[in-house]
Amino acid sequence: MHEHERGEQPSGATAQAAEWDARYRERDGTMWSGRPNGRLVAEAAGLSQGRALDVGCGEGADAIWLARRGWTVVAIDISDVAVSRAREGAQLAGASVDWVCGDALHTPFPPRSFDLVSMQYPALPKAAGEAAVRRLLDTVRPGGLLFAVYHDLDDEHRDHMKSRGVDPADYVGADDLGGLLGDDFTVELRVVTPRIDPPPGAPHIADVVLRARRL
Ligand SMILES: C[S@@+](CC[C@H](N)C(=O)[O-])C[C@H]1O[C@@H](n2cnc3c(N)ncnc32)[C@H](O)[C@@H]1O
Question: Which one of 40, 116, 185, 208 is CB 3.0 to 4.6 Å from 181, fit for a cystine?
Fold first, then answer.
């Protein structure tokens, strides 16, 4: 897939894209810190470089960090606003990333083609169906890693999100993702752990980390 190419966008995804675009536009500047996620940095620092897919890349800090460390990176996000910001950030950083604006659950990436599939705080809707999630997981190549990090939400947090119109139960969580892994994946790590280097004032201070390797 080449830079500026659009991933596939089924109709439900059009509404999601508009919602995420609106969230990103609420901020004059950027929505996220511009720094790569600490948990990904800690994990990837020990890996050999290869091909990485960043699912729900947001404003691109992780993808840019991976690319600058020598990874060949494809990064996808459903929000055009986020991908535009990511692209600008990459230009400033002199990083080469293959940016895709589209729905990660309906974009036909080649199966078994990535050494690392990274999902950092993904917001993939369950409504897309299990087959779509399985297809995304199938992009991990044999010997490669799925590395997914989620916010650890308590009841208060869930209620707060619901009051803002977002029910976490509608999204594919760490346990849902783990349950969709085929027999050819081994879960190497599934842990709740303090978030590394959370942005100041962030309510999310603990992570659920899932690392699975494909045999
Ligand atoms: C909580 S943000 C995390 C962004 C980034 N990974 C980070 O850690 O800063 C979730 C991101 O997923 C994107 N997203 C939501 N649904 C998506 C989908 N179906 N396909 C691709 N990206 C999606 C959103 O636009 C948003 O940028």
Answer: 185
CA max distance for the chain: 45
Give the residue whose CA is nearest to atom 9 of ligand 1: 58
Nearest atom in ligand 1 to 17's CA: 25
d(CA 30, CA 13): 23
Q: Residue 32: CB within 6 Å of ligand 1?
A: yes
- Residue with token string 């600008």: 88
Cβ–ligand 1 contact at 147 (below 6 Å) = no
* Statement: residue 9 has pLDDT above 80: no
Which CATH superfamily does the domain covering 11-27+36-71+79-120+134-183+190-214 fall into?
Answer: Vaccinia Virus protein VP39 (3.40.50.150)
Q: What is the pTM of this model?
A: 0.95
The pLDDT assigned to 1 comes to: 46
Give CA–CA dist 65/36, Å, rounded: 6
* Tens of pLDDT, residues 138-197: 999 999 999 999 999 999 989 988 998 889 999 999 999 999 999 999 999 999 999 998
Cβ 133 under 6 angstroms from ligand 1:
no
Domains of the chain, by residue range, sit at 11-27+36-71+79-120+134-183+190-214
